[in-house]
Amino acid sequence: MKRNAATMTNALAIAALLVLSAPGVGATEQCGECHPEERVSFASSVHAREGVGCTSCHGGDDTTLDSQSAHRGEFRSLSDRSEIPGVCAECHASQERMRPYNLPVDQYALYQTSRHGMAVAGGDDRAAVCTDCHGAHEIRAADDPQSTVYGRNIPDTCGRCHADAALMEPYGLDPQVTANYRSGVHGKALLDAHQSAAPNCTSCHGVHGGAPPSFGDIDKVCGSCHEKARRAFLAGAHYEGMLAAELPECAACHAHHAIRQIDVAAIASSCSECHDQGSAQVLLGEKIRTLILAAEQELQKAEERIREAQRIPLEVEDHLSRLEEARTYLTEAHPLVHTVSQEAVEELTRRARSIAEEIQHEIYAELDRTVAHVGLAGFWFYLIMTLAILWAYKRRLRRGKSGS
Amino acid sequence: MNGERTGILEWLSRRLNLTEIFSLLTSFGLFYAEVDNRKPLREALGEALGRPSQSYARGPRILGLIVVVLIAVEILTGGLLALYYLPTPESAHASVSTIMRHVGFGWFVHQVHFWGAQLLVAVLILRLIRFLVQGVYRAPRELVWVCGALLLLVCFHADLTGRILPWTSGAYWSGVRALEIIAAVPLYGDVGMFLIGGDQASISELTLIRSYILHIGLFPALAVLFIYLHFSTVRRVGLSEIAGEVKEVGSDFLRNHLANLAILLVLVIGVLVTLAVLVPTPFLEEADPFSTVPGVGPPWYLLAPFGFLELSSAVLPSWAAGTVLLLVFSAFVVLPLLDRTRPRRGAGPLTLGLAVVAVVVWILFTFYGARVA
Amino acid sequence: MNEASDSDAPEPAALPRRRFLNWLVRGFLALWGVGFAWMIGAFVRAPRAARSLAERVIKVGTLESLPVGQARLVHHGKEPLWVVRVGEDTLVGLSAVCTHMRCIVTWDGDQQILNCPCHDGSFDLNGNVLHGLPPRPLKRFKVETQLGQIYVHL
Predict the structure, then answer these.
(1) Under an 8 A CB cutoff, do B270 and A313 touch?
(2) Beta carbons of A321 and C6 less than 8 Å apart
(3) Any chain A CB within 8 A of the CB of C8?
């Protein structure tokens, strides 16, 4: 009996030690006992999933509940913001650490070239550091829709500082940029229409090496997506002219952040924003607008004719495929507007128009009921002659009968 | 020349009962005199023509002949269309499109088939009105009326089943409406829906091909049957008298009658051709069973039952309204049994009054149905 | 129904005229039958495989993309064809299927002929056999240009 009780106590003690020494909440990660909020927000982060702990960034001892001993040694509180990029870079600039995750390791280097990085290096601690955009503890992967750096959330993240008028005033930066962006086509596409391919702040300004594109480079940035328009622009008179006048290329007409799509009908009016009314350039703008609008009208008329013909019914597949061809020409003509060259635009609109006119002409000829009506008239003539013959025959019968 | 013809006829008449074969022709409108099958052809013909008879290609009787001509036209044009039509939902529209665009005179045959059908229904209605007004439903001509009424109903159904065949958006949805109306009538509706194999909400592949079979098989056969019965009864009881009519005898009668027939034929063809060329029915885009076209109602002759069902849905349960329709149509067919007053000129005053009321109500409901469609 | 057997006795002098009129009238009326038969015949006659334009005409590319003296192999279904730009404005379309054993012929730009690799037959720019085993010339296709685009009619 006594021996059994002793064995049991021993067993219990061993069990207790084992439990207490087991890895996990019990022995390590004690930081969360005093810092519960941080533990909760860290638990959902991508770092926690990968086994990164509090001490990985903050150092110190996470096995003890004693504040003094926990915050001893290599502990760094990171309350000094300028430390933060370096700390993050300890892992994120290390190729060996990042290779398994296939993450790039140039963020820190790029950051140091960026306006944010240079400001921080120069002692300004109001500029953004890693945690301002990525969050401190609740860091999520960039493709996680809840991440602060997920495409759709980036305008909000940047806006935390860049929409703050008081914060931006010492730098002379416009606090309206995020509001402008939201009102423009890019913002509407990204935020309202949920098109994930639409550009956010980082698409044009760069991610970690963020800086606004300088004059002369704006067309390159826009042209990374709007290739055709850029090529047309470079081939046209606007490129040299705007460089000489120090105008921001694309942004001169389309605005920087509140990107606007210049409606075809508004082409001429946007020209007069820079050029004098009645000048040759504005007239050229009107010419180009007329070319495109006229071609569009012809296409619409052709489409109506085709619909008319379908009801008759006539064979319209040929016409439909020709119409597609005409539409393609017209679509190609739109970016060519940036050449501000009448010849370039006219070459395409002329083709689109001639096809549309041809279609209308052909359908009109097919719809022409003249042949059918003439045929019908001929038939009636024949019919009346036949009736006359039959009636004459009947009269003869009657006369013959009364005669005999 | 004559000797040769006699020779061939002689040869045949020793092997076939030519009189019997000829009398088949008379069953479909050539002339209505009863031909004695036991006599040789010439003798039988001479005997038949010897009796004085009216040409029924004159006066109000032309309505009946127009019906025969139109049915013949429909069968001919329908047979031609059937050479190209494919009765499945996938190919129906395309095959009709081929007919309209690529086949020589395809559009013409199609239009004639359509207008012929509409004219047929209209003429059948006018004919029945004339029967009623002139009392051609009384003994011994009850079957004339019954055959006429049944022929009208058969042609309604033929038009109905034929309408959905092109599988255009208008056709499909007006067919769905028509099915709703049919399904609302008890007994008849149950049998109809059973035969057509469908539910009323959509027209499936099965329903389409059954409609096709009914349209080219059953209904034309029934129409021919009723025409045959009509002429059979006319031959037995004779044509009803019309005041001031001239009766003729022999070859005068035959020539006159055939000349009248020819004039009628030419006129009907003229009307059909004119309609086909000047007022072609449009060929719409292919039907999409998942997208209802607003404002499409049932065919024009069903607008009245449709309007009635719509209006009465507020006060009557649908089976009651359907029963009313069933009773009305049944009374219409068996009218001779209901009005058994003695044969007299014209209709009985009660019948005439009721008929006038019925026609007016029908027209009113047609307008109402067109409005709510 | 025969007007000639009418009871009216015609004057001897008017007989030929009467007979002529009769035939005229009969011919006129017969036109109904003829017209009828013609229409039905036209209807019953199965339409030529009236395929859509897209199946009858192929767009080969722009004129600029095919320099003079070069050829392009156009794939269309099972029957490939060669489009050769012979001159500034002349193009020729030839079937690429050798008439011997249906191998696909290749274009020899230096000699401006088509060679069949199977049994060494060759064809000239008109499709005629230059030498070798092929029994018949190559099928020609009509090629036209419109607005700078090359189209081949099958």
Answers:
(1) no
(2) no
(3) yes
Q: Is residue A167 part of a domain?
A: yes
The first and second tokens of residue A158, run together, are 């940047």
A355 contacts in chain C (CB < 8 Å): 147
B contact chains, 3+ CB pairs < 8 A: A, C
Identify the domain containing residue A294 by its residue range. 288-368
CA distance readout (Å), B45 to B42, C7, C123: 5, 22, 78
Mutation for testing the B interface, residue in A306, A308, A312 having most B CBs under 10 Å: A312
Q: Which residues in chain A are contacts of C8 at CB distance < 8 A?
A: 400, 403
pTM over 0.90: no
The answer to whether residues C24 and C59 belong to one domain is no
Looking at residue B168, the DSSP 8-state letter turns out to be B
CB nearest to C42's CB, from B83, B101, B104: B104
**Are B165 and B215 contacting, i.e. CB atoms less than 8 angstroms apart?**
yes
Shared domain for C100 and C128, answered yes or no, is yes
* In a domain? residue A71: no
For residue C61, the enclosing domain spans 53-153
DSSP one-letter string for C12-40: GGGHHHHHHHHHHHHHHHHHHHHHHHHHH
Domain interval for residue B219: 59-292
What CATH number corresponds to the domain at position B239? 1.20.810.10
Residue with tokens 């003798």: B43
Would you give per-residue pLDDT tens digits along chain A (404 residues)? 556 666 666 666 565 555 555 444 445 678 888 888 888 888 888 888 888 888 888 888 888 888 888 888 788 888 888 888 888 888 888 899 889 888 888 888 988 888 888 888 888 888 888 888 898 888 888 888 888 888 889 999 988 988 888 988 888 888 888 899 999 999 998 888 888 888 888 888 888 887 887 777 888 888 888 888 888 888 888 888 888 888 888 888 888 888 888 887 777 778 888 888 888 888 888 888 888 899 999 999 999 888 888 776 677 777 888 888 888 888 888 888 888 888 888 888 888 988 888 888 888 777 777 788 888 999 999 999 999 988 888 888 877 766 43
Query: Of B306, B135, B138, B155, nearest to B226 (Cα)?
Result: B155
A394 → closest Cβ in B256, B269, B280: B256
Strand C113-115 relative to strand C122-123, pairing: antiparallel
Contact A317 C54 (CB under 8 A): yes
Q: How far is C130 from chain A (nearest CA, A)?
A: 39
Tell me the three state secondary structure of residue C74. strand
